[in-house]
Amino acid sequence: MHFDQYALLRATSRTFALSIEQLPQPIRDAICIAYLMMRVSDFLEDNEYMPPERKVRLLRLWEQIVAGKAAPEQLVAELSDRAPEDADAEAARQAPALIAALRRLPPALQNHIALHVRDTARGMARWVLRGPDVPEEHDLDDYMHEVAGRVGYLVTEVFAWYSGFVRARKDVLMPLAREFGLALQTVNVIRGLRKDYERGWIYVPESFCAAVNLHRTDLFDPAYQRQALEVLDKLADKAERHLQGALAYVKQLPRWLHALRLACIWPLLFAVRTLAISRRNVNVLMGEVKMTREEVTAIVRHSTLLGWSNHWLDYYYRRLRTPPPVEAPLVVASKSPT
User: By the 8 A CB rule, do 224 and 218 touch?
Assistant: First the structure.
């Protein structure tokens, strides 16, 4: 059966597909394959039907497959007990095709991708074993680095392989690449607060809640809405700090690498706008908050025309981070946890 990696990419993420599909070859194929391999890891880590022990075993198997020490068909066999539920599950079942596509890339690109996918799978397995225990902000950073910060490293390695200019600045870009990953993942944490809570995970440092006299388990109780919004503020401020690092990363890329800049500008600005509409928004605690399609289209159009300019990028960043007016929620009389 024909394997269409870009159709699978669009099924897993329309927004990241926008960025990846406009990259020049051969790094377009490299980033596409790398992204899908990371989605395999994501599926194994956060699906809702596997017990932790099975997740850890399959993440370790996936690490061995990427290293060339196990056959990808083993993972397919391990997943044969259920039909694919979504695109991420389908990506995992396409492991043989993904590994075959990886092996067709230039050897240096293969090595960069394999290294970071393996490291991410190993880090995810460590966190599955640890469980939803996030006492301090540095614990959250550790988790987010494993699932997203390493992705920033991977992308930078691929860009450096493609461009001597990027290669010469890799020492500056790599720390910013980690910040980029943490920025996007912090916004994802905010967007997914409710969904993660419903599957038993709360990616909020206990110290954030303790600072406002709130038990983490009460974060989604309407009786503690005022304190919960203060915790949300702390997460939003954290995301903003990381987004500043992501902005600095993009501004290091020269204007003549416009396609590479756009591949970074779009997820950056989508995150900036998502954060803006999430601030002080009680709906974040009740469900998922998203940008409109019109906002996505406008960001893509404007940045395609003007994203070569760092001055314009600074201006547009400030404009997007301005929160829209939101209707004040009905606030339940707040009380202190016992």
Answer: yes
Joined together, the tokens standing for residue 218 give: 């009460």
- Do 141 and 93 lie in one domain? The reply is no
Q: Is the pTM of this model over 0.85?
A: yes
DSSP secondary structure code for residue 323 in this structure: P
Q: Could you tell me the CATH number of the domain that includes residue 323?
A: 1.10.600.10
Burial class (CB in 10 A: 0-12, 13-18, 19+), 275: buried
Confidence at residue 323, expressed as pLDDT on a 0 to 100 scale:
74
* 39-48 pLDDT, tens digit each: 999 999 988 8
Smallest CA-to-CA distance from 328 within 277, 290, 287, 281 is with 281
Question: In 3D, which of 251, 248, 249, 298 has the Cα closest to residue 273?
Answer: 298
CA dihedral for 275, 277, 283, 288, sign (positive or negative): negative
Residues 120 and 136 reside in one and the same domain? no
- DSSP, collapsed to helix, strand or coil, labels residue 279 as coil
Task: Please tell me whether residue 324 adopts helix, strand or coil conformation.
Answer: coil
- In angstroms, the CA 71 to CA 51 distance is 23
